[in-house]
Amino acid sequence: xxxxxxxxxxxHEGGGxxxxxxxxxAGAAAEAAGVSRxxxxxxxxxxxxxxxxxxxxxxxxxxxxxxxAHTSTVRLGALVTGVTYRHPGLLAKIVTTLDVLSxxxxxxxxxxxxxxxEHEGLGVPFPxxxxxFERLEETLRxxxxxxxxxxxxxxxxxxxxxxxxxxxxxxxxSPHPEIMIGGGGEKKTLRLVAQxxxxxxxxxxxxxxxxxxxxxxxxxxxxxxxxxxxxGKTIAYTGDAATxxxxxxxxxxxxxxxxxxxxxxxxxxxxxxxxxxxxxxxxPVTARLAELD
Length: 293
Fold this sequence. Notes:
Helix content: 40-55%
Number of helices: 10
């Protein structure tokens, strides 16, 4: 089981001027610790449960580009991009650019979006949930069409119409950047994973709940003729043990997921300064998980 780190707070005691140095240090610490992927949130405003709208928030893809310049091995992506935040043609171009400049390390993490306040606050349309899922599926189709070197024709959907799906230069990743679809909705989200995704991301609610979600995913794969084993399985761990630096509690918490086929546990501490935390917590638990394998 590999380890990922999700940077979700930017409230450094040194303020905004210190964030560049802190993020560069976090990237170096992540690679030194053996972290496999590094992600950031894709939000305009910080969420209420994580400091509120007055707390600092950086734009995701600018931050990922900065991290790309200060890392060389970790996979980089948003966890996850809301489908409403960017036009799908532009999103495909942004992720492609990150992939090219990082040497093939970009991930497209994507979901249906949910945070209505930031949409209303900055004047971004926030359609009803059913429409957001329709837009999510069209966005996945557009990205895959733009990343197909043999297809540059139009796209005609219900919500999006593109005259040309050109993407030059193409991604470095082969056949394209990993598509990780976030969420555990059983009727829509996990079907989209089975049909379009390279990986899923579930919350580490309990081993029993995650086992059930994976069984649902397997059922969708069977219905669609997709090889279930070719889909990466990741979980987001938000327990206090990670933030508190409690190695033993974290390892006990995660033990029940080991037999479920989970390949990556993504740690999401609520910390504004993660570099030192990675050295004292992530590096030891990454080594311990490797020993268990």
